[in-house]
Design a protein that fits this description.
Number of strands: 12
Number of helices: 10
Low-confidence stretches: 433-439
CATH superfamily of the largest domain: Histidine kinase-like ATPase, C-terminal domain
Helix content: 40-55%
Radius of gyration: 43 Å
CATH topology of the largest domain: Heat Shock Protein 90
Largest sheet: 5 strands, antiparallel
CATH class of the largest domain: Alpha Beta
Strand order of the largest sheet: 2-1-5-4-3
CATH architecture of the largest domain: 2-Layer Sandwich
Shape: rod-shaped
Mean pLDDT: 81
Length: about 450
């Protein structure tokens, strides 16, 4: 027997028993009054007395029944109100976005989490078709509805929903059958935002891919060492044989490039153990010229127009690891080259903001970076380049190198207005000799 049936039986049983008790009390009291005060009364008086007793009993029972029924009704209404508030509190406290709808997708319930997640208010949704289904997902939802109607609940499925502004995003989706007190059948949908989880999972995939690439690079580096050493030896021999030949400058640049490749391969081999930085006084202008010479073929391919203003850096030195310094400038200049269109411009300029610091500016007129992306560009694995065009590690490495050398890197950018990288490094200062002029 159901709880509601038991409640109805108890209500009627209580009402009947209380009514019988009232009648019994009234009749007993009336008999006592009659035996004491109306013992000598005539037939007519007794007749009116009995009629009065019946009317009084009926009125008393009517008043009692009305009071009892109204009291039970108020109690039931209060119980229903508390139950609804309890249900509403549970619904609003749910961490998932809850939507209740029928087979035609007309929404009958919408909680506060759903309002926050999708930006649709309850008034905008209830009584209307579910508005969060993006184009192309209607068939999937209909399939889920059929499976639920067949008795199979849908639990923790990853799918896509959209908000009020039309932005699609990943959610974890569950769909369950629901039957209300009137027997009306519907569907209870619970969704939660998993964009951060998906982003982290994609980063893990990237890390795994980069780890595999690292193993491949280490194997490749072993094979490249020997031919690079042979090439370097032959170039050095050619320079020694013809030190004054017209192509001596080209051979010098070629030797520097091969050395750079050797050092890069060595960095790949030493990546896992990260050797200590070896800092020496390095001419900043010469380092920049070395990197630009190395990247010259790429600039020629893109027909980039590159301008230099290195006067402020002439003769100035920084205490730095030459390889890391070159890697930092290579990253920043490569990013500028990727950002510009064919025949775009790149400007390299050196300034002296103070006697102790030098600032290198690398400006391009490329596509720029949005204000939303700019704060994240130095985060590892964040990239604004298309798929397969960047790992998102370059700027993070460049900033780490600058910080390890006591400096900093920052970017200023705007969409379609280009980007400028500001690199500040402390200048190398000769320590004064103790006790006078040094020898």
């Amino acid at each position: 027997m159901g709880r509601s049936t038991q409640g109805r039986w108890w209500f009627w049983a209580t009402l009947m028993l209380s009514s019988i008790s009232i009648v019994a009390v009234v009749f007993a009291a009336w008999e006592l009054v009659e035996s004491k005060y109306f013992r000598e009364a005539d037939y007519v008086s007794l007749h009116y007395l009995y009629i009065t007793r019946g009317i009084a009993t009926s009125l008393l029972l009517a008043v009692w029944a009305a009071w009892y029924v109204l009291r039970q009704r108020r109690w039931r209404e209060e119980e229903l109100r508390l139950s609804r508030e309890h249900y509403r509190g549970l619904l609003e406290a749910s961490p998932g976005a809850v939507a209740l709808y029928d087979a035609s997708l007309l929404v009958s319930e919408w909680n506060a989490t759903a309002e926050r997640l999708y930006s649709f208010s309850k008034e905008e949704v209830v009584g209307k078709p579910l508005p969060t289904i993006p184009p192309g997902k209607e068939t999937e939802l209909r399939c889920f509805l059929q499976r639920v109607q067949g008795g199979e609940p849908i639990l923790d499925v990853e799918t896509v929903r959209r908000d009020k502004h039309g932005a699609a995003f990943e959610v974890q989706f569950s769909l369950l059958p629901f039957t209300d007190a009137t027997g009306q059948r519907g569907f209870l949908e619970v969704t939660s935002d998993i964009r951060e989880r998906v982003r982290l999972r994609e980063k893990l995939f990237e890390i795994e891919k980069l780890a595999s690439m690292g193993k491949m690079a280490a194997g490749t580096a072993h094979h490249l060492n020997t031919p690079l050493a042979a090439m370097l030896l032959r170039v050095q021999m050619m320079r020694e044989r013809a030190p004054l030949a017209p192509y001596a400058a080209d051979l010098e640049r070629l030797e520097a490039s091969i050395r750079f490749c050797q050092q890069f391969v060595q960095r790949l081999l030493e990546f896992s153990r990260r050797p200590p930085i070896e800092k020496r006084p390095e001419e900043i202008a010469r380092t920049i010229q070395s990197v630009t010479s190395f990247l010259a073929p790429l600039w020629l391919t893109k027909r980039a127009r590159v301008s230099f203003d290195l006067n402020a850096a002439n003769g100035e030195r920084v205490l730095a690891d030459r390889n890391q310094l070159e890697a930092m400038f290579t990253i920043l200049l490569s990013n500028a080259l990727d950002a510009i269109s064919p025949e775009g411009t790149i400007g390299i300029r050196c300034l002296r903001p103070s006697a102790e610091w030098i600032e290198i500016q690398i400006a391009d007129n490329g596509c720029g970076i949005t204000s939303a992306d700019l704060p994240q560009v130095f985060e590892p694995f964040f990239t604004t380049k298309g798929p397969g065009k960047g790992t998102g590690l370059g700027l993070a490495i460049a900033r780490r190198i600058a910080v390890e050398h006591g400096g900093s890197v920052r970017l200023e950018s705007a969409p379609n207005q280009g980007t400028t990288a500001f690199i500040q490094l402390p200048l190398y200062q000769l320590a004064p000799a103790i006790g006078g002029k040094g020898k």
